[in-house]
């Protein structure tokens, strides 16, 4: 689960980490009121969307010469002008794709006198089962170019969760950022605070870009992104409440309500599978046969007829879907349950695209009988290869 910048900063502040003073706003008047609470005379107005590259982004409605989603304002009037242009308009960045994201929230912060900018992030390194702290002296909007062109300027510090954050990790962080004196000590302290915040909140990723050194010798988090392990949110109800569903794909939001793992893709073959590994294999074999999957959808091992019906309807709600492949291996999941859900959903939505179903495992004969007796134009397949060939052929024939 992702959250907005202002939410992430509020969480970091609770762990004693320095951030500039700022306030969130949903309307132009709220943005102006937020600025009036700040000392000024410099303000920063920031669009709040779940994507990076906001500063270099462009608003679809404002033309190519308009400013991006992070703007400096030297007066309250300029704050009002920036808020008016941003709210309700669509910001396109390198991470949003051409569709962009509508800006529904702003964050108005106090201006900061910057001496230097750094990059610092933490993430779970699944290859080693440890936490990786990635740091660089080259902070700012072009960190991707640094990673590509000068990777030697990026240092990775690996932390074993069984051992925790040790003093030598802090020293390595400060050394990598080339900090001395009081700033060196501040960086070591910051590294420890960030690690504890990362672990306590079950983060998947915490990125600070930039971490800035101010002209008066402070280290402040100027911008941050944070994401969390969805499987651990039951331990953090306060964090779960920060979810902004307007930033997510509506189909993915609906799928989460039924405990379905769904991700929309750009293809034309809808997939419904039980098990993540089998779902990946299904998508691969669709591509092998010359088509592209429209989604990843794992119904899990304990799906009910209601859950399967919901999954089927979510797939069919995608206008790009020209055919559906259902691939079920019934271990915990029973094939007859899947079949009942398929039939119920197909009748409810008036199925008008080709449907190929491959069933194997528990109650497979009952499942196939339910499909055969449904009166629906469902094509059965014997194995995964056969299923992929049939759905691709069916879609081509229907085109």
From TrEMBL:
<feature type="binding site">
    <location>
        <position position="112"/>
    </location>
    <ligand>
        <name>ATP</name>
    </ligand>
</feature>
<dbReference type="InterPro" id="IPR017866">
    <property type="entry name" value="Succ-CoA_synthase_bsu_CS"/>
</dbReference>
<dbReference type="GO" id="GO:0042709">
    <property type="term" value="C:succinate-CoA ligase complex"/>
</dbReference>
<dbReference type="InterPro" id="IPR005811">
    <property type="entry name" value="SUCC_ACL_C"/>
</dbReference>
<protein>
    <recommendedName>
        <fullName>Succinate--CoA ligase [ADP-forming] subunit beta</fullName>
        <ecNumber>6.2.1.5</ecNumber>
    </recommendedName>
</protein>
<feature type="binding site">
    <location>
        <begin position="331"/>
        <end position="333"/>
    </location>
    <ligand>
        <name>substrate</name>
    </ligand>
</feature>
<dbReference type="GO" id="GO:0004775">
    <property type="term" value="F:succinate-CoA ligase (ADP-forming) activity"/>
</dbReference>
<feature type="binding site">
    <location>
        <position position="209"/>
    </location>
    <ligand>
        <name>Mg(2+)</name>
    </ligand>
</feature>
<dbReference type="InterPro" id="IPR013815">
    <property type="entry name" value="ATP_grasp_subdomain_1"/>
</dbReference>
<comment type="similarity">
    <text>Belongs to the succinate/malate CoA ligase beta subunit family.</text>
</comment>
<dbReference type="GO" id="GO:0005524">
    <property type="term" value="F:ATP binding"/>
</dbReference>
<dbReference type="GO" id="GO:0006104">
    <property type="term" value="P:succinyl-CoA metabolic process"/>
</dbReference>
<feature type="binding site">
    <location>
        <position position="274"/>
    </location>
    <ligand>
        <name>substrate</name>
    </ligand>
</feature>
<keyword id="KW-0547">Nucleotide-binding</keyword>
<dbReference type="GO" id="GO:0000287">
    <property type="term" value="F:magnesium ion binding"/>
</dbReference>
<dbReference type="Pfam" id="PF08442">
    <property type="entry name" value="ATP-grasp_2"/>
</dbReference>
<keyword id="KW-0460">Magnesium</keyword>
<feature type="binding site">
    <location>
        <position position="223"/>
    </location>
    <ligand>
        <name>Mg(2+)</name>
    </ligand>
</feature>
<dbReference type="InterPro" id="IPR005809">
    <property type="entry name" value="Succ_CoA_ligase-like_bsu"/>
</dbReference>
<dbReference type="Pfam" id="PF00549">
    <property type="entry name" value="Ligase_CoA"/>
</dbReference>
<keyword id="KW-0816">Tricarboxylic acid cycle</keyword>
<comment type="subunit">
    <text>Heterotetramer of two alpha and two beta subunits.</text>
</comment>
<keyword id="KW-0067">ATP-binding</keyword>
<feature type="binding site">
    <location>
        <position position="117"/>
    </location>
    <ligand>
        <name>ATP</name>
    </ligand>
</feature>
<dbReference type="GO" id="GO:0005829">
    <property type="term" value="C:cytosol"/>
</dbReference>
<comment type="function">
    <text>Succinyl-CoA synthetase functions in the citric acid cycle (TCA), coupling the hydrolysis of succinyl-CoA to the synthesis of either ATP or GTP and thus represents the only step of substrate-level phosphorylation in the TCA. The beta subunit provides nucleotide specificity of the enzyme and binds the substrate succinate, while the binding sites for coenzyme A and phosphate are found in the alpha subunit.</text>
</comment>
<dbReference type="GO" id="GO:0050074">
    <property type="term" value="F:malate-CoA ligase activity"/>
</dbReference>
<dbReference type="GO" id="GO:0006099">
    <property type="term" value="P:tricarboxylic acid cycle"/>
</dbReference>
<dbReference type="InterPro" id="IPR016102">
    <property type="entry name" value="Succinyl-CoA_synth-like"/>
</dbReference>
<comment type="pathway">
    <text>Carbohydrate metabolism; tricarboxylic acid cycle; succinate from succinyl-CoA (ligase route): step 1/1.</text>
</comment>
<feature type="binding site">
    <location>
        <begin position="53"/>
        <end position="55"/>
    </location>
    <ligand>
        <name>ATP</name>
    </ligand>
</feature>
<feature type="binding site">
    <location>
        <position position="46"/>
    </location>
    <ligand>
        <name>ATP</name>
    </ligand>
</feature>
<dbReference type="InterPro" id="IPR013650">
    <property type="entry name" value="ATP-grasp_succ-CoA_synth-type"/>
</dbReference>
<comment type="pathway">
    <text>One-carbon metabolism; formaldehyde assimilation via serine pathway.</text>
</comment>
<dbReference type="InterPro" id="IPR011761">
    <property type="entry name" value="ATP-grasp"/>
</dbReference>
<keyword id="KW-0479">Metal-binding</keyword>
<feature type="domain" description="ATP-grasp">
    <location>
        <begin position="9"/>
        <end position="241"/>
    </location>
</feature>
<keyword id="KW-0436">Ligase</keyword>
């Amino acid at each position: 689960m992702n959250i907005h910048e202002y939410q992430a900063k509020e969480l970091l502040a609770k762990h004693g980490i320095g951030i500039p003073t700022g306030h969130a706003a949903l309307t132009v008047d709220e943005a102006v009121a937020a600025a009036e609470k700040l000392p000024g005379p410099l303000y920063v107005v920031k669009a709040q969307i779940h994507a990076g590259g906001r500063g270099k982004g462009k608003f679809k409605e404002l033309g190519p010469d308009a400013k991006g989603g992070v703007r400096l304002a030297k007066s309250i009037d300029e704050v009002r002008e920036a808020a008016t242009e941003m709210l309700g308009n669509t910001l396109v960045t390198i991470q949003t794709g051409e569709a962009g994201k509508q800006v529904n929230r702003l964050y108005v912060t106090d201006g900061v006198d910057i001496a230097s900018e750094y990059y610092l992030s933490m993430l779970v390194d699944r290859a080693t089962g440890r936490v990786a702290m990635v740091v660089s002296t080259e902070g700012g909007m072009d960190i991707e170019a640094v990673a590509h062109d000068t990777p030697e300027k990026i240092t990775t510090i690996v932390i074993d969760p069984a051992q925790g954050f040790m003093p030598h990790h802090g020293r390595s962080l400060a050394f990598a950022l080339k900090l001395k004196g009081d700033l060196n000590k501040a960086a070591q302290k910051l590294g420890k605070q960030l690690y504890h915040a990362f672990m306590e909140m079950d983060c998947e990723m915490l990125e600070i870009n930039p971490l800035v050194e101010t002209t008066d010798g402070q280290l402040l988090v100027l911008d941050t992104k944070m994401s969390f392990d969805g499987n651990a949110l039951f331990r953090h109800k306060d964090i779960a409440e920060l979810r902004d569903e307007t930033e997510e794909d509506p189909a993915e939001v609906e799928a989460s309500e039924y405990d379905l793992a769904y991700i929309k893709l750009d293809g034309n073959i809808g997939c419904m599978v039980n098990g993540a590994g089998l779902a990946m294999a299904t998508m691969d074999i669709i591509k092998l046969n010359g088509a592209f999957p429209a989604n990843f959808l794992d119904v899990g091992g304990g799906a009910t007829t209601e859950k399967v019906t919901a999954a089927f309807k979510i797939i069919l709600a995608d206008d790009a879907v020209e055919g559906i492949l259902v691939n079920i291996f019934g271990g915990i999941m029973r094939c007859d349950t899947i079949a009942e859900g398929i039939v119920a959903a197909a009748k409810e939505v008036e199925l008008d695209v080709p449907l190929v179903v491959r069933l194997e495992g528990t109650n497979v004969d009952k499942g196939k009988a339910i499909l055969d007796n449904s009166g629906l134009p469902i094509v059965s397949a014997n194995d995964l290869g056969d299923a992929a060939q049939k759905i691709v052929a069916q879609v081509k024939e229907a085109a």
